[in-house]
What does this fold into?
Amino acid sequence: MVGTTPRKTSVEGTEGVEEGVGLTALLVAAARAIETVRHDSLAQDVYAEHFVRAASACAGWPLRIQQVPGGDANPLWGRFARYFGLRTRVLDDFLLRSVHTGDARQVVLLGAGLDSRAFRLDWPSGCVVFEVDREGVLAFKHRVLDGLSAAPKATRVPIPIDLRADWVGALVDAGFDTGAPSVWLAEGLLFYLPPAAETYLIDTVDRLSTGGSALAFEVKLEKDLWEYRDSRLYTSTADQIGIDLLNLFDGEPRPDSAGDLAGKGWSTSVHTPFDFTRLHGRGPLPEENDALAGNRWVFANKP
It folds into this structure.
């Protein structure tokens, strides 16, 4: 698959989100902006469109489904954006359910990107949200949110570090309590990592988690991602905004992280996105040559 090259920029404060994997954070933000103003919205993120407007790489991207040629029939801004809206809702629900029904009051967002959950979700008193991501991504997010005078609804602790570095040490130094229950989220992260890095991350979360902790993450199960290289979802993303997802994903066979957690005593459940489309009555449905066919959302709890 051939895609156009993502545009670069020298605009101050946008380093880290204007190219490569960082640019996908802006794609998700645009999808959340579109979802927010739908008449049948699944998730609300009033900050999302401000991230898109702040980066020149997004110039011309739609922020309303009415601005999209073909509307919901558009593979990128219709179906794929709706996928991100559904994913946002499902993972929002997971986080809030975990902190409201259990004892966990510390939440760790791994590869937090332009996630604004610390600002938009109704956290119980005493919650701390740790956001782990690269310095350039968090700096861009801070610049936008500071310009809006946004105030978090929980204690927010940004941790500007690459996940290939000693993020565990940085997390503990920032106040993470290894003796207390925690809630972990790896949204849209693991399929960019080599298998060994995914295994290390899952093992590390297990090691840092006491009983009463919870984890949600997203994986892709295809044995060969390139079998879907002609998927409308991949080709439209490359053609319309210059993001070649297949060249960003790690193509090696994935580990069985859900099975590994079960072997360590966690209770796990594995779902397709389409399970939640049926639950909520809206969202993407399966199609031929579907790049979403191998996507799984995994939920785990440590007794």
